Amino acid sequence: MEDFKQKALAGERLNFDDALNLYRDNDLLFLAKCARQMKERKSGNKIFYTINRHINLTNICSSNCPLCAFQVKDGDKRGFVLESADIEKILQDCQNTKNLSEVHIVSALHPNKNFDYYLNIVKQVKTALPKVDVKAFTPVEVVNFAKISGLSVKEVLIELQAAGLDSLPGGGAEIFSDRVRQIICPKKATAAEWLEVMQTAHELGIRTNASMMFGHIETIEERLQHLFTLRNLQDKTGGFQAFMLFPFHPANTILGAEKNIQCVGSWENLKMLALSRLILDNIDHFKAFWIMLTLPIAQLALGFGADDLDGTIGEEKIIHAAGAKTKTGITRSDLEKIIRETGYKPIRRDTFYQEVQNDNSASS
């Protein structure tokens, strides 16, 4: 057996050449075996999920990234903005959601909303749901908050923390290659800025997720470099809780039309998931984001290194704008059924992967 395969099988730390050789070897079942072993060393027979609610505040964006199907320009009739009264209605629904553990807030870069708007939303959510974790705002949004407020990234994060923010999602990372970002998201936060936000958050005790969006114009080498960059930061801070792999959905995007991009297949999705698990040996949890992968592929991903199906979600707009055909929400009982079919044990968690005691009902 080749050295790179022996290292993967033994769970040893891979270098760049090892990872590239594993990718080119294309032995999907071997990668699955190695990734599953690493997953089980981290979390045993457990598969996590949470009861959460997504809130997308606006789709009006000044960044206008070619890879995004969600954003519209200011003045577009498709545009929307949630104000305090709209949030209040959502929160009333959340209060009726049994066992709700997390509210996940992400948005576009609205050209006219100031930082106080976002701060007040966090305060409003935390006031209404004091026991619920608020996971809000990608590093791209945090960089934007710094620009529109005149504050430093650290000052922005401190204010958000004081308002009730508990953690950051991992979106907006895309691919760290400057070459790629100049094409897919030229006006958005740079890779260096994304990494700065995450490092600063970790130093402040704010736990975060990490991500990669692949399957557009990046090379395999650029994908791998992205993963090794995340691994290096995790070695330094230890602040990443979970990693999410996002396949690019090209429908309704400028990038998809101009480059004639097709969605990657299930083989590539699972191959990259397993390889990511092996490279990112210092991140404990890997999410199979069912709303992007579809439920059948997300379930299969549990055999390729994933140990988390995210959550019930409730409503999601960004990925569905790019052509996702999945439901916008799922019940707890359905999530648990999907997990049990794989032979693993479903574990309800909070944002920080603390196990939550189940009640007698799985209907939420």
How many helical stretches? Answer: 16
CATH class category label: Alpha Beta
**CATH-defined superfamily:** Aldolase class I
Side-by-side strand order of the widest sheet:
5-6-7-8
Percent of residues in helical segments?
40-55%
The percent range for strand residues is: 5-15%
Q: Give the domain tally.
A: 1
**Rg, please?**
20 Å
Would you identify the regions where 5 or more consecutive residues have pLDDT less than 50?
Answer: 316-326, 360-364
According to CATH, the fold-level topology is TIM Barrel
N- to C-terminal distance: 48 Å
Count of distinct strands: 10
Q: Major β-sheet, in short?
A: 4 strands, parallel
Structural class: alpha/beta
Brief digest:
With 364 residues, the protein is of the alpha/beta class.
Describe the protein.
With 364 residues, this protein is an alpha/beta fold. It has one domain (16-348): Aldolase class I (TIM Barrel, Alpha-Beta Barrel). The chain is 45% helix and 13% strand. It contains 16 helices and ten strands. The radius of gyration is 20 Å and the shape is globular. Mean pLDDT is 93; it is low at 316-326 and 360-364.
Defining key terms:
364 residues; alpha/beta; TIM Barrel; 4-stranded parallel β-sheet; 3-stranded parallel β-sheet; 16 helices; 13% strand; globular
Topology record:
Layout: H1 3-10, H2 16-25, H3 28-43, E1 46-50, E2 52-56, H4 84-95, E3 102-106, H5 115-128, E4 133-136, H6 139-149, H7 153-163, E5 167-168, H8 178-184, H9 191-203, E6 207-214, H10 220-237, E7 240-247, H11 254-259, H12 266-279, E8 285-287, H13 290-293, H14 295-301, E9 308-311, H15 318-321, H16 332-341, E10 345-348
Parallel strand pairs: 1-9, 1-10, 2-3, 3-4, 5-6, 6-7, 7-8
